[in-house]
Amino acid sequence: AARQVLAALGQLGYSVDMLTFPVGGDVQIPGLRILRTSNPFGVREVPIGFSHQKLLLDLSLASALSRQLRERHYTCIHAVEEAAFLAVAATRFRRVPILYDMQSSLPEQLANRPGFRLWPVRRALESAERWLLRRCDLVVASAGLAAHVSHTVPDAVVHEWRFPSTQPEVAPVEMRSLREQLELPPDLPLVVYSGTFEAYQGLHDLLDAIPLVRARVPSATFVLVGADRNGAPVGHRYAAGLQNSGALRIIERQPRSRMAPYLAMADVLVSPRVYGGNLPLKIFDYLAAGRAIVASDIPTHRTVLAEDRAVLVKPGPEALAAGIVGVLEDRHCALRLGHAARLFAERHLGWDGFVESVAEFYDEVHASAGALLVSGT
Fold first, then answer.
1. What was the pLDDT predicted at 93?
2. Are 292 and 268 in contact (CB under 8 A)?
3. Sequence-distant (≥ 6) Cβ neighbours of residue 367 within 8 angstroms
4. How far apart are CA 255 and CA 288, in angstroms?
5. From CA 259, how far away is CA 196, in angstroms rounded?
6. CB-CB neighbours of 94 under 10 Å
7. Among residues 48, 35, 15, which one has the least CA distance to residue 377?
8. CA distances from 325 to 246, 279, 347, 360, 362 (A)
9. Which of 148, 320, 348, 375 is most solvent-facing, going by the fewest CB within 10 Å?
10. Using CB atoms within 10 A of its CB, is residue 226 exposed (0-12), middle (13-18) or buried (19+)?
11. Quick one: pLDDT at residue 125?
């Protein structure tokens, strides 16, 4: 998401310093200078979501941000996720507009983690979120979060991201090659998931649905892309057996640039997410891939999905399995849904429209040509 925003800003002629963690790879984008923080704690990897590594590196990020603001003049701070707290603190005695890039609601994301379920902790997190939303000049939230922001702070100025949804054409030879690499026969019906393996993504429901699907479509095979290095959804009673039977392939997280063949080879793309106010970015790529989508029927998904371009089912393994089986057994339905999804992406989620929206957001928060983007990712 940050890379797409940076590419749009470069196309618009903005000069951007991106202050970020001392891990990850550099990218070349016009107008971009990457500034990495120090690494006194020797952190080598930062997992997705809340972690002690992120907390430690946020200390370095806060120090580096204060230093940058002393040394250079910026017309805007574009702060991603928890970096917005650092930006508000750092600009306490200097006036620099803050654009809060709200990818998720932090109280919601932390709600199911040990220690964060306690009522006093949740109240403190909710208060902190309100405090932040009141102090940022503009909030640009993931699709589905604007209502939460407006409910939390009614006078907050908020917009939602609509990220570009463009997938390159994938040649049949690429799909055949990937299937061969994964030892998947060319006629095997595939159900593909991409994304993190966090609990809110609903993978336990998906794994519970696999035996139900295979009872109707015995050859159906599920490919889950996005595992961390330990390689499996921890603690699920079926995972090992499903892998051993060939019903399930678990693939490590892939760079976004390599995902097109995984999506293109699918007969069904699935998003079993059970909760969360922010729309997962994979949905934009699912739409552009032109394949049938089966997703849980929650408000987050409905920000861009509807019955004419996806099968929306009640959360839970039984409904999920029924939706997948319905698509696998009806080729005409699968083709119709895939065509409608791609058409929607072409009409509403193009690159030019995204660049225009970024221009409007930045025009709203400032009118000059220099910015500092602060992100832990």
1. 81
2. yes
3. 75
4. 17
5. 14
6. 10
7. 48
8. 18, 25, 29, 43, 45
9. 348
10. buried
11. 92
Q: Angle 247-249-255 (CA atoms, 0-180°, nearest 5)?
A: 155
CB 292 within 8 A of CB 267: yes
Tell me the three state secondary structure of residue 140: strand
What are the distances in angstroms from CA 121 to CA 39, 64, 113, 277, 319? 29, 29, 11, 20, 35
- In whole angstroms, give the CA distance from residue 175 to residue 29: 30
Token couple for 280? 């997962």
pTM of the model: 0.83
Residue ranges of E strands in 64-127: 77-80, 98-102
Q: Residue 151 corresponds to which tokens in the numbers above? A: 């409910």
CB count within 10 Å of CB 270 equals: 28
CA distance 35 to 18: 6
pLDDT, residue 368, reads 41
Tens-digit pLDDT profile for residues 153-197: 999 999 999 999 877 788 889 999 999 999 999 899 999 999 988
* Lookup: tokens for 332: 């005409």
Q: Where do we find the tokens 């992406």?
A: 345
- DSSP label at residue 199: G
- Positions in the chain short of pLDDT 50: 231-232, 234, 368-369
Closest CA to 190 of 142, 223, 157: 223
- Identify which of 143, 110, 81, 146 has the alpha carbon closest to the alpha carbon of residue 301: 143
Provide the pLDDT for residue 118. 83
Report the distance separating Cα 299 and Cα 318, nearest Å: 20
Q: What would the 3-class secondary structure string for 319-353 be? A: HHHHHHHHHHCCHHHHHHHHHHHHHHHHHHCCHHH
- pLDDT computed for residue 229 by the predictor: 66
- The residue whose two tokens read 């499903």 is 242
Predicted pLDDT at 40: 87
Residue 323, C-beta contacts closer than 8 angstroms, at least 6 positions apart? 294, 311, 312, 313
145, 278 Cβ separation under 8 angstroms: yes
The pLDDT, as a whole number, for residue 369 is 40
